[in-house]
Amino acid sequence: MAKDKKQKIRRPSAQTPKGFRDYFGSEVDQRNAMLAQIAAVYHRYGFDPLESSAVETVEALGKFLPDVDRPNEGVFAWQEDADDNKPGDWLALRYDLTAPLARVFAQHRNDLPTPYRRYAMGPVWRNEKPGPGRFRQFYQCDADTVGSASVAADAEICAMLADTLEAVGIPRGDYIIRVNNRKVLNGVLETMGLVGEDTAARDAVLRTIDKFDKVGENGVRELLTKGRLDASGAYIDGVGLTDEQAGPVIAFLTSKGGDTATTLANLRVAVGQSQTGLSGVDELETIADLLAAQGYGPDRIEIDPSVVRGLGYYTGPVYEAELTFEILDEKGRKRQFGSVAGGGRYDDLVKRFTGQEVPGTGISIGVDRLLAALHAKGRLNSQASGPVVVTVMDRDRMADYQTMAAELRSAGIRAEVYLGNPKNFGNQLKYADKRQSPVAVIEGTDEHDRGVVQIKDLALGARLAAEMTTNEEWKSQPAQMEIKRGDLVDEVRRMIARAENADG
Amino acid sequence: MAKDKKQKIRRPSAQTPKGFRDYFGSEVDQRNAMLAQIAAVYHRYGFDPLESSAVETVEALGKFLPDVDRPNEGVFAWQEDADDNKPGDWLALRYDLTAPLARVFAQHRNDLPTPYRRYAMGPVWRNEKPGPGRFRQFYQCDADTVGSASVAADAEICAMLADTLEAVGIPRGDYIIRVNNRKVLNGVLETMGLVGEDTAARDAVLRTIDKFDKVGENGVRELLTKGRLDASGAYIDGVGLTDEQAGPVIAFLTSKGGDTATTLANLRVAVGQSQTGLSGVDELETIADLLAAQGYGPDRIEIDPSVVRGLGYYTGPVYEAELTFEILDEKGRKRQFGSVAGGGRYDDLVKRFTGQEVPGTGISIGVDRLLAALHAKGRLNSQASGPVVVTVMDRDRMADYQTMAAELRSAGIRAEVYLGNPKNFGNQLKYADKRQSPVAVIEGTDEHDRGVVQIKDLALGARLAAEMTTNEEWKSQPAQMEIKRGDLVDEVRRMIARAENADG
After folding, report:
1. CA dist., res. A487 & res. A490, Å (int)
2. Which of A43, B162, B286, B475 has a CA 20 to 30 Å removed from the CA of A394?
3. Is the minimum CB–CB distance between B465 and chain A shorter than 8 Å?
4. Model ipTM?
5. Whole-model pTM?
6. Looking at the complex, does the CB of residue B29 fall below 8 Å from at least one CB of chain A?
7. Confidence class of residue B1 from pLDDT cuts 50, 70 and 90?
């Protein structure tokens, strides 16, 4: 019996599931504001919004998950109830916005324009082990052009990405968009004889290239040949190529020259006689030319063969946007902020559905990382603008207080009445502080009878308290003043403006 | 072997799961615009945005699902993988925004202000049988005040709802917000002796009241007493009350008078000596007074005891917003558009987590229904504004075409270059039509050499074709004209303005 009773009052735990989080107030506002800025740029470029369902059949999602070792895992999935003895479909939450785009384009291809430029913004879900700063639900913000084989589409995406970064507040000079091409790498692999059926050796080379960011030129050379002692003292087996065989890969990765022409010339050497490689270099040249003609020089978008992220996944040009300014990491060390967006061209987006090859190219912007970057640079006001709080001195005159708040709102001023228990006036001011309220309005019976109200500059009050200023200053800028009831809107507006000026 | 091969080329079906759908272009834009309009009103009232995770533990969600017969079902749920032999938690997609609010407030109550005004907008998921127009993922848009027992909070929610409806484009006179109170009904039940342990009889009465909308006064009277022959000829058993016993319920439901004072007087009669009932009537009076003082008369917000939706779920005041204009239903019959928002007061929001009773009150707006209403009234422009399409006459001059599009965009004009195969020029114009493009830009080698471009008014072209106008008119308003390359931006802007004026 006693046990039963205990079980009955067992309370559920008020916790988000592991790896999930909530976003409050200005976090939501700032993200929405950024998404709106990005959408405005995408819209101007002729991209249309698409909001696909968050839930897809597992079959439609396919084994598409990029950058993950276990492509079949990593999703949240469940089985539908059986219907008429037919087993239910397996459904899953989308893990990115590209797999749903493939399904949407295959499903609606007769109604959609071709090429189809679309953007999509929304949460995606990954069933992965959560870690610090690593969540299982996060925002993606994608733009793709489906159905165009022209590298003009790739150039357009790069230009749009540059415009987008500037629109959200990353000035020119603080970012660089780097462009590489999987076809060039394919040419290099061709010259090495690593094409056709022998996928094992090719995959080993691709995996090694992926480490270029971390281990650099010498590291990649060792890993391609005899192997390497890593920082932890462990010995990593090499791919087993000779130094000569590894040469073209190293030449490819390090072919960036002082200007675009030099880089392209170096790449032409690296790909040798490979037609695939040469056509890849031509594509990069075309992209650079198209961008230069529109004023996007290598100070903003440059050809850089050392960009390796995504080379294993995409089939043509790949792009990556990096922020180049330095921030302090958790340990106080300076480091570059790094990547905030990436993408590239893929040529079999809908083939698995329709059998038809439809090329596509696009980018994904890491909105949360961009927000973090703006925070790190102090370019986002993390202080939300709280409402004016109308306090309640006399519980019976709630109608008067609500009318004051309504007057303020009608004038466009954010305002609310304190709706907790009004007995303890100190609690009302504490509440106003917690709300980051700029101004409190106070009207007791005495004020009401005299046709006046008190307004209190809470921002100034906090500053005066913090700065321990002298009495003189306090008097010259009183934190609280009595005004005529009829002047409420004007005087509150003036007080807010004063507080904002002092802040700026 | 043959079978194996067949399995390999079996293609996945490109379909949304049953009951899900995608939203394209202007559907997304219009909903986002409406959400922004609603958020602006909520913000002005001092409400803060909250974006909780879409995924909750099943334990935290609880058996909270309103308006559903099987509260434990109806969610999409799955079990986490086991961890160290501990069975994984059951997770689920949220089915509304109120259950997550309860979890969030219980989890973060020490950091949140009290009262906590919050709004939330986003998709929710219901694992129900889909039907026509009934989807398993849909938007909710909620505002709640947590931690205030004052009916001033209820009055504020009603005023805010009225402001919101007007902000999204429902003019005064086209909506009515009706307010009732569960406490008054409780008083009625008290006078009938239906309180305390005998929940069966009380629940039977509550279920009957819920049918008032459909069966009206006589129907409810029959169902409360001897039973009723319904329209299909089936006999529905009655609750078994005498006519006299059923009287107070009927009096309650029909107590709406010609003005607020009469309604309140009728309600005071209906609740007899019940203290609960009288305090409920007092609450309604206070709400009406607070609203009247701020200018919200019964033309916008009225006390109406015939509002029964939610009376079984909420614990105090309940509200429902209805659009009062008529639309034509699928069968061409006139009918009132009906409910677009509803809500009320609940007093045990977080008790299941903390043991502490925290009152709350709030509304949920059906954004998709509101959008449908605006469409039905022709108040939403369903035609999206397509981009200017720069056509490709000469594949080698892509840089010129992209530069034209960039110039137009810099001037704030939505513009894109045709990126499909340019060989068939007719296809390019068909594409522009599908994009609802207002203007096409055409520049062949000849034009290029002469420093001119052709611009084609596609909107006018379509209109001329449709209206079969005479040659004279065509000539006076040419659908295509040659302009100087340097005048591109100005002339395109002029042509778009002309098209928009003709539309308006």
Report:
1. 5
2. B162
3. no
4. 0.90
5. 0.91
6. yes
7. very low
